[in-house]
Amino acid sequence: MITELCILFFLVALAYSAAGFGGGSSYLAILALWGIDFQLMKSTALLCNIAVVTGGVYHFYKSGNLPLKKALQLSLVSVPLAFVGGYLPLKQETFFLILGIALTLAALAMCYRFFFEKEEIVAPKEKESEWAYGIIGGAIGLLSGMTGIGGGIYLSPVLKLGRYDTAKRIAGLSSFFILVNSISGLAGQAVKHPIAFDWRFSLPLILSVIVGGQLGARLSARVLKPRWVAGATAALILYAGVRMLIR
């Protein structure tokens, strides 16, 4: 089982990291379909998110595609709420209900990217409502801490619809957003009780996404075709989300 999971996690990290995502929604979908304990799912997905986007944040910053002022504005509310989400005690049934809804919404967001998002570069608006984006970021941060999804899959379409910045800088912002919220969500879990972690299970997966993430961060988005990846993986995430809701 662990070999198959390592291969799948490597491919997810390889594909998602080029677009600034950690792949948390896909990690959770895969782990849910494999029947992994829900507490271990949350911690493993967040750790894999951190492993993938840490390299992405570095590369986006180095290339000038990470506007730190905007990154901090988006994270100001989301980080403490991600901590709260990680700290909240959730029963297994409640967790899978929330995760099922979150994965279904993530699949719809990915379908939007595949069918409706345009490839051309769109100039950002001169003025944006920072408070509105801060509130949206806070809601996504809370969901991130509760479920283990980094939140970039939700944040990116919102920022692109609002013409918050250029496509590459939005990818950098999403990468930073995922990193800080994943760390905060893990901290919330750690304060509540010891983080559910099995080195024999989680470490091979983390190493797999580190390798995949580093390769993906260095490859051109034109090579990996992130839009086509979104279309291919949306079906998996939608299936997992709907299956949880039916249960």
TrEMBL record:
Spans traversing the lipid bilayer: 44-61, 73-90, 96-115, 131-155, 170-191, 203-221, 227-246
InterPro entries noted in UniProt: TM_pro_TauE-like, TSUP/Inactive_protease-like
Origin superkingdom: Bacteria
Localization in the cell: Cell membrane; Membrane
Primary site of residence: membrane
Lipid bilayer topology: Multi-pass membrane protein
Keywords from the named record: Cell membrane, Membrane, Transmembrane, Transmembrane helix
Gene Ontology CC annotations of this record: plasma membrane
Family the UniProt entry places it in: Belongs to the 4-toluene sulfonate uptake permease (TSUP) (TC 2.A.102) family.
Protein name: Probable membrane transporter protein
Biological source species: Chitinophaga terrae
